[in-house]
Amino acid sequence: MESEARLMMLDGGLPEPVLQLRFVDREGVVWRVDFAWLDPDVIVEYDGYDWHKTPEQVQRDHRKRAALEETGYRVLSIVREDVRDKPARTVRRIGDLLGRAAA
């Protein structure tokens, strides 16, 4: 599904993101992010239902997002419906983040 999300972004005219970027937070914890733009610092995470449904997984997602935001990244989480049912809206949301972060 991440491949479908990437194609949605590119088809929507967004710049090519860095895929599976390795990120080390201030505590030394290593994270991987699904899609990243480094100028400006924007992260998009695809939250698939299989990997983000248990309480432990949800807590981990919150820790990861907090670590990213703490260092200045703007983070957007998307799900299957964002990609399949609302691609134009999702591309616009990402584009807005990329534009706002650069301003």
Q: Can you offer a commentary on this structure?
A:
It contains four helices and four strands, in the order H-E-E-E-H-E-H-H. By secondary structure, the chain is of the alpha+beta class. The protein has one domain (2-102): 3-Layer(aba) Sandwich (Endonuclease, Chain A), CATH 3.40.960.10. Strands 1-2-3-4 form a four-stranded mixed beta sheet, sandwiched between helices. Residues 32-95 form the DUF559 domain.
Features:
single chain; 26% strand; alpha+beta; Restrct_endonuc-II-like; Endonuclease, Chain A; 103 residues; 4-stranded mixed beta sheet; 4 strands
Strand content: 25-35%
The coarse overall form would be globular
Topology pattern, helix = H, strand = E: HEEEHEHH
The radius of gyration is: 13 Å
What is the tally of helical segments?
4
Percent helix, as a range, is 40-55%
The CATH superfamily label reads VSR Endonuclease
**What is the straight-line distance between the termini?**
31 Å
Number of domains: 1
Q: Which stretches are poorly predicted, pLDDT < 50 over at least 5 residues?
A: none
Shape-level CATH architecture: 3-Layer(aba) Sandwich
Pairing-aware structural class of the strands and helices? alpha+beta
Strand order of the largest sheet: 1-2-3-4
| Main sheet overview | 4 strands, mixed
Q: If you consult CATH, what is the topology? A: Endonuclease, Chain A
Rounded mean pLDDT score? 92
CATH class descriptor: Alpha Beta
Number of strand segments: 4
